Amino acid sequence: MPMRTPSASVNTGSGVDDFSATEGQPILAALIEAIHENAGRLSQIDGATGDGDHGVNMDKGSLRARDVLGPGPFDLARSLSALGNVLITEIGGAMGPLYGSFYLDMASVAAGAERINSDVFGRMLVAGIAAVQDLGGAKLGDKTLLDALLPGEAAYRAARDNGEMFAVALGRMADAAEQGSESTRGMVARVGRASRLGERSRGFLDAGSVSCAIQLRALANAMSELIAADARSAAAR
After folding, report:
1. Nearest to residue 10, comparing CAs of 167, 121, 184?
2. Half-sphere exposure (Cβ direction) of 149: Cα atoms closer than 13 Å
3. Is-above-0.85 flag for pTM?
4. 115 beta partners
5. Are the C-beta atoms of residues 163 and 171 closer than 8 Å to each other?
6. What is the Cα–Cα distance from 221 to 226, expressed in whole angstroms?
7. Secondary structure in 3-state letters for the chain
8. Fewer CB near the last or first residue (10 Å), C or N of the chain?
9. Which residues make Cβ contacts (< 8 Å) with residue 203, sequence separation at least 6?
10. For residue 116, which phi and psi values (nearest 5 degrees)?
11. pLDDT digit of tens for each residue in the chain (237 aa)?
12. Do β-strands 115-116 and 19-20 pair in parallel, antiparallel, or remain unpaired?
């Protein structure tokens, strides 16, 4: 998994707890880097119960989104929309449409915001999850990406409800997603290609949940860094 960022627990005292919605480029770059670094591992995990191409496909899709957008700069909604469209239209299998819908619906929420704060991102998560559930029909415990995504959103929401700073809530989300992904090792797959294995799917990680945890960690790290940068800029004024 990508390394945790120390900025996720830093409170600068500046009063800044959000970042500009124009800052899509570093967030997309973080997603691309995380997927690329883990592509081989993801395909290896997928090979145990599936086609073994998950990492390759996600890597190809994220790099293609970068090519579509060009050098930038571009805002968050545009970056997520480009990633979503590429994953839906150019990546085969089930995961392309699932992740594509996730990012497209997140982008639709981000498009209406000038700055991304904990409330906006919370609504982005909820919209993205709804898109995945509507398309795939899976639920918690079915050994899918939702076993990382749903615990991540729940932990994020709980942190917000407890008054935690945005970056702290993001860190809680990423931690819970990783724990949720690890829990799929003990599950039996109930949907998708892996479900054909029945009990034989137990004992293996779900590749979609692993890639979900990787992407949520990348989002948490990149957004936390942007929050910290904006806070430093505000404190210096």
Report:
1. 167
2. 29
3. yes
4. 20
5. no
6. 9
7. CCCCCHHHHCCCCCCCCCEECCCCHHHHHHHHHHHHHHHHHHHHHHHHHCCCCHHHHHHHHHHHHHHHHCCCCCCHHHHHHHHHHHHHHHCCCCHHHHHHHHHHHHHHHHCCCCEECHHHHHHHHHHHHHHHHHHHCCCCCCCCCHHHHHHHHHHHHHHHHCCCCHHHHHHHHHHHHHHHHHHHHHCCCCCCHHHHHHHHHCCCCCHHHHHHHHHHHHHHHHHHHHHHHHHHHHHHC
8. C
9. 185, 186
10. -100, 110
11. 444 443 344 444 557 899 999 999 999 999 999 999 999 999 999 888 777 889 999 999 999 999 999 887 899 999 999 999 999 998 877 889 999 999 999 999 999 899 999 999 999 999 999 999 999 889 999 999 999 999 999 999 999 999 999 999 999 999 999 999 999 999 988 877 777 777 887 889 999 999 999 999 999 999 999 999 999 888 887
12. antiparallel
Provide the token pair at 168: 């702290």
Identity at 35, one-letter amino acid code: I
Tokens of 152: 């991540």
**Nearest 5°: phi and psi at 13?**
80, 10
Q: What domains are defined for the chain?
A: 18-236 (1.25.40.340)
List, in sequence order, every residue forming a beta bridge with 20; answer none if it has no partner: 115
